[in-house]
Amino acid sequence: MSLKHFTIGALVVFCIFVEHATAQKNELSGIIGRTFVSNQGIPGAPSYDPELRFGKGLTFEINYARHVMGGEVLALALEVPFVVDPAQDLHSAQNLVPKQYSSYFVTPAARLNVFPGTAVSPWVSFGGGFGHFSESSTLEFGGTNPGKTGTTTGVLQAGLGLDVKLYKNFTLRGEAREFWSGVPQLNVDTGKSRQYNLFAGGGIVWHF
To answer: Which of 160, 102, 170 shows the shortest CA–CA distance to 133?
Structure first.
């Protein structure tokens, strides 16, 4: 089964599950934070600048979730995080590296909250879906990017966070999510076919 077929199948199953969970509560959250990507070494690059370095892109998340079961100790929700990094800057001595890229990840997931009825509730999340990188058409040192400017990849997501009750139907949320994805096309060979994209942020959750 191809990754595309697997992703479509997972989304269909998720939607069916949500459709039948009519008695459960919904939530919508908005999160703002940063995406961190570790520097990557470039074999054969000059010794004074041997790495491809990433910025800390300002990133936004919109997340819809539906609670499907739970009690006083544990509660399970199905969620769909949609995370967008509009501009991840790039820096390298290699003159063919794009100036930046944008990315988004969509990863349907299961989230397990501990002590969901209390004022403070920690949680963990795990899921998978797909992501897309849009490499800039210009290079870091000027000129036109000769390489590919659109890359779609399968993604696995693991996250943890903390929800704190704020007022009535609103809670504060702090979270960190790791998106394990393919790599964007950056016109250099770092020897990697996958990369970790760590998103950390905070925001507001509306329960309805």
So the answer is: 102
Q: How many CA atoms lie within 13 A of 127 on its CB side?
A: 27
The two three-digit tokens of residue 1, written as one number: 């089964």
Comparing CA positions, the residue from 179, 195, 154 lying closest to residue 5 is 154
pLDDT the model gives residue 2 = 55
Q: pTM (2 decimals)?
A: 0.85
Give buried/exposed letters for 58-85 (b at 16+ CB in 10 A, else e). Answer: ebbbebebbbbebeeeebebbbbbebbb
Q: For domain 3-207, give its CATH number from 2.40.160.20, 2.60.40.10, 3.40.50.300, 3.30.465.10.
A: 2.40.160.20
Nearest one of 69, 65, 79 to 109, comparing CA atoms: 79
The half-sphere exposure of 180 on its side-chain side, counting CA atoms within 13 A, is 7
Q: Does the pLDDT of residue 39 top 90, yes or no?
A: yes
CA distance 175 to 65: 15
User: pLDDT for 9-27, tens place per residue?
Assistant: 555 545 544 444 444 599 9
Beta partners for residue 75, in sequence order: 70, 113
Instruction: Give the per-residue pLDDT at 22.
Output: 43
CB 201 within 8 A of CB 57: no
Question: In the beta sheet, which residues pair with residue 99?
Answer: none
